[in-house]
TrEMBL record:
Coiled coil: none annotated. One of its GO terms (molecular function) is ATP binding. The lineage of its organism: Bacteria, Pseudomonadati, Pseudomonadota, Alphaproteobacteria, Hyphomicrobiales. InterPro entries: AAA+_ATPase (IPR003593), ABC_transporter-like_ATP-bd (IPR003439), ABC_transporter-like_CS (IPR017871), ABC_transporter_ATP-bind (IPR050166), P-loop_NTPase (IPR027417). PROSITE patterns: ABC_TRANSPORTER_1, ABC_TRANSPORTER_2. Keywords: ATP-binding, Nucleotide-binding, Transport. This is Nitrate ABC transporter ATP-binding protein.
Amino acid sequence: MELILDHVSHSYGDVTVLDDISLSVGSREIVCIVGPSGCGKSTLLRILGGLEKPDGGAALIAGDPPSDSLNPLTYVFQDFALLPWRTVEGNVSLVLEDHGIDRARKREIIADVLARTKLTEFAHAWPRQLSGGMKQRVAIARALSVNPAAMLMDEPLSALDSQTRDLLMDDLVDLWGQVGFSACYITHNLAEAVRLGHRIVMLSRRPGRIREIVEIDIPLAERANHPEETAAIQRRLWEAMRDEARAADRELSNVA
Ligand SMILES: Nc1ncnc2c1ncn2[C@@H]1O[C@H](COP(=O)(O)OP(=O)(O)OP(=O)(O)O)[C@@H](O)[C@H]1O
C-alpha cells in the first residue's frame, strides 16, 4: 500500500499553509518530513491520514493494506496519548476492541507487540509508573497491534530527553528490521531524520513547499556505523534549512 499526496495545497482562512505538495510513502518505507516551525508538517500528516480534507489536490491510497490489518493507518503522537486508568496491556487492548477478535487471538497479538517493543514485563504496569520513553513504547506497541499499513508519527520522540530519544531510535530501527513498518514521520530533529528516514522531505517555511527530497541509501541498521556520512547529510540539511528556520522563528515571535 502506498500513501500519496497529489499536488496538495491547504489554507486556514487567508493563511496558505501548504502549497502544491506531492509525495508518497511506499511499503516498508520511512519518510521523514522536516521543516521550520509552522510550515505545515502536522497539517500534512492530518491530510495524509484523511483527518483533514485539502483545499486543493488529493490524498490517495494506492493498493491494499495487509490482509490482516485491522486499521490501515494509525497515529503516534508526541504526548503518548495513553489512558491513565488502563494498564500497559489495557492501553494496547483498547484498539483491538470492536474488531470481532476472540480473546485468545487478542492475547496473542498483545503478547507479540509487547515483546517486540520490550514491554513484556511491564504488561500490568500503569502509565504513571512508566518513564517517558516507556510510555512512548506503549504508544508504538498500540499502533503496531492493529498491523497498520502505515504509521503516521507526529514528533514521537520530541518530548523525550536526548538519551531516551537515542535509545528509542535504536528500538525503532530494530522494530523496522523485524516488522518492516511504513511511516510518515514528522520531526524537528535532523539527527532523528537522518537516523530513521529512508527519504527525508524538506519543506520550506510557510507556505510549506517541497524544497528538497534526500534519499539515504545506507541501510537503517548500519547508519550508527557511518557517523561521518550521516553527520555530513545532517550538516547539509541544516545549511539548507538554517536561514528559513531563523526567518520562521522571527515570524512566529512577531505574531506573539
Ligand atoms: N485548525 C487550524 N486552524 C487554523 N490555523 C491552523 C490550524 N492548524 C494549524 N494552523 C496553522 O497552520 C500553520 C501550520 O501549522 P502546523 O501545525 O501544520 O505546522 P508545523 O510545521 O507542524 O508546526 P510546528 O513545527 O511548530 O509543530 C500554523 O501557522 C498554525 O498556526
